[in-house]
Amino acid sequence: MHFITGGAFNGKRAWVKRSYTFMETDSWLSAYDGHVLPVELKEKDVELLVLEGIEIWIKRLTDQYDAGKCREIWDQCLINWERWEKEQEQHQLIIIGTDIMKGIVPIEKENRIWRDAAGWAFQDLAAKADKVDLIWYGINQTIKGGENG
After folding, report:
1. What sign does the dihedral 99-54-96-142 (CA atoms) show?
2. What is the pLDDT of residue 97?
3. What residues pair up with 142 in beta bridges, in sequence order?
4. 3-state secondary structure string across the chain
5. Is-contact 12 136, C-beta < 8 A?
6. What is the pLDDT of residues 47-69, one digit of tens each?
7. Strand 131-136 to strand 139-144: parallel, antiparallel, or no bridges (unpaired)?
8. Residues in the chain with pLDDT values less than 70
């Protein structure tokens, strides 16, 4: 798994498109385009799969469940995604999430819960990912994996 994160409108999507060769048979699922959180990937018969907008999927989870249940669902997603990627040598999973954890702590309780849940989700994903890149202003910094990780 390759986890890409960084601030909003900092070029994460464009960086991924420049960094990977996409085929017609590859797939891009985005929370921004209304796709639901893909807990299972068994049905995805593609080599390269991009999941974009995990912070939005986490928000939808926190709107429905308490923090414990959100973490349980997220953990199951990570297990399933890792299994899918290891199923076939050519499977490659790229996950993009916008960093919402910096800045002023929100006043509204539901937004604080979302921010906390997103922080836990990003930590769990970074721990499982083979590679993690931080994108700021369209420039990447590899913080896990690659030549130095």
Report:
1. positive
2. 98
3. 133
4. CEEEEECCCCCHHHHHHHHCCCCCCCEEEEHHHCCCCCCCCCCCCCCEEEEECHHHHHHHHHHHCCHHHHHHHHHHHHHHHHHHHHHCCCCEEEEEEECCCCCCCCCCHHHHHHHHHHHHHHHHHHHHCCEEEEEECCEEEEEECCCCC
5. no
6. 999 999 999 999 999 999 998 99
7. antiparallel
8. 147-149
